[in-house]
Every structure is written in C-alpha cells, then in structure tokens.
Design brief:
The chain is an alpha/beta fold. It has a single domain, classed as 3-Layer(aba) Sandwich (Rossmann fold). The chain has seven helices and eight strands. Strands 1, 2, 3, 4, 5 and 6 form a six-stranded mixed beta sheet that branches. Helix 1 crosses helix 7. The protein is globular and about 50 Å long. It starts with a strand and ends in a 5-residue tail after the last helix.
C-alpha cells in the first residue's frame, strides 16, 4: 500500500473529475490517495508516489502546474510519479496540437529534470459556449458532464493509465524492499 498524492489544476473542473476517478481506482488497487489542488498541495515528504494532472491550453499546461513541476522537480524525481494532461477534445484529436504539446512537455521535463514514469493525455470537455445550439439540443441528457459542457474523456484510457502506474508502483516497491533487505556492503 502506498500513500499517493494526486495534484491537479483545473479551469472547468474536468481535470479534478479525472483526478478523482484516478483516486477511486488507486483506492480500489489498495493504495491511499489524497487529491488536492496544486495551490493547496502539501509537501511531498509523506507521500510514496505522486500523480500530477494538468489541463492544457494552447499546447501548454496552465501556469499553476508548470510552477508546481518546477518548484517540486527534485521531490518528484525522487519517487514514482505520473503525469496526465487534459486537452480540449478538438485539440486532443488534432495531430498538430498533440505534436506541439509533446514538444512543450519535452522542454518542461528537460528544464525541471522530472521524468514521470507514466504519461498520458486525455480529451477533456467542450464547454457549451464553444459548440452550436443544434449540438446542445441533440446531445441533451446524453452527457455525463455538467450541464454546461460536453465530455469526451475515454474513461477506459484513464483506467489504463492507473493500471500502468499501479504496475510501475508495485515494481518500485518490490525493488525498494529488495534493496532494503540486502544493504550494499562497504
């Protein structure tokens, strides 16, 4: 069992919903997650692992997560960690936007020295202010998201992300147990 901090920033609330789903699945896997906003995140010393959730706008993370990654890069690098980004559905499916996000992500990780063990990107929500009236009428009642947005998140992909991270976390815990049981001779 691991204490897992799940840190997120959100603009429309959907990254928080994904973070809560990640926490629920981590709990089901026998771990103890704590979900917190990046502006209220505690120090990392009491956590065994960290998952960071970041909404993306114009192919960059919102500043709160970028600042969090820079401020905590050393602590993030010292424990199992994962990163998920949440893009607008149209951006998530656009190759140019994904390429721009990948380039930005490589630069941020290179600058901070943080290299998450598992990285994923999910489509988020489309606020109704960005879609037409006909679409709103046709999809009325079909959305699982709040009344003011249309969700496009692949929840199976979120589950796959959690499964991959749980697998990595278990391997890291086994390796730590082995190294603790067999200290290096001097």
């Amino acid at each position: 069992m691991a204490e897992v901090l799940i840190v997120y920033a959100t603009e429309l609330g959907h990254t928080r919903r994904i973070a809560e789903r990640v926490a629920s699945e981590m709990r089901s896997a026998g771990h103890q997650p704590s979900v917190v906003s990046s502006d209220a995140a505690p120090e990392l010393d009491r956590f065994d692992a960290v998952i960071v959730g970041a909404p993306v706008r114009t192919s960059v993370f919102v500043p709160a997560i970028e600042d969090y990654a820079r401020d905590h890069a050393g602590d993030l690098a010292g424990r199992p960690s994962a990163l998920f980004s949440v893009c607008a559905p149209d951006d998530h499916d656009d190759r140019g936007c994904r390429d721009a996000l990948d380039a930005y992500l490589r630069t941020l990780l290179q600058e901070t020295g943080w290299h998450p063990d598992v990285i994923a990107s999910f489509a988020g929500v489309r606020p109704y202010t960005h879609i037409g009236l006909a679409h709103r009428v046709l999809t009325a009642g079909a959305s699982q998201a709040a009344d003011h947005e249309v969700g496009a998140t692949d929840w199976d992909a979120v589950s796959g992300f959690v499964e991959a991270f749980v697998h990595h976390l278990q391997r890291a815990q086994r390796a730590q147990a082995v190294s603790s049981a067999h200290p290096a001779s001097t």
